[in-house]
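Fold it.
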Amino acid sequence: MLQVCLNGTRSRDEGRHIPVTPAELAAEAVRAVEAGAEDLHLHPREADGLDSLEPGAIAGAVDAVRATVPGGVRVGVTTGAWAVPDPERRVELIRSWTVLPDHASVNWHEEGAGAVAEALLERGIGVEAGVWSGTGGARRFRAWPSAHRVLRVLAEVTDTDPATAAATATTLLRELGDDLAAPLLLHGEDDGAWPVLRVAAGLGLDTRIGLEDVLTLPDGSPAKDNAHLVRAARGILDGRRGDGSGRTRE
């Protein structure tokens, strides 16, 4: 499965093509799905462009995206602590959502991850357990009594050095163990994104790509949009060689 992460916390300063508004997210989503993405992860924003867990922001982004993509494509959001540092407040907001995403990510190195995940499960929202390399996230997640109930584990390699990111990915997978009850999605970020995606492809794991994770194609040239990245990733996953433009050839 290939997920596309449409925007993350990136701002317009990092590229005018970063989608921020619901309409922009919807436009990027439909193009990415047409390019081969099978699942969506997005960061709803307030009018000031900052990440938000407020009901109105969640509803606006999720409704807009769902209106443009096929019904079978799941739409997920973040619950990152950078948006709302207080975990109790994050739980309150989740319980107040009027439009429910299909899934939401919870970072296991953040305070209150278990409570946030339980609030999502109570509302029937799938949990993507975010486990970052270089943290105690893997240990904390494995110790959580409801670990078997998550939709998937997002194994995120935060090592951005292309020379070492693949090895860091292997270490993270070892920390998570081979007895996970949920599917595993492995991905990297910035200069480590493509090396880690290739590790995921080689192991047959789910993965993701998008402007949240990386702004450039495998050859280092700038990506025009999320669809550009998805096409390049699709070529790697399908065993084709990319030419850096997003086009692939057998």
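The longest strand covers residues 126-132.
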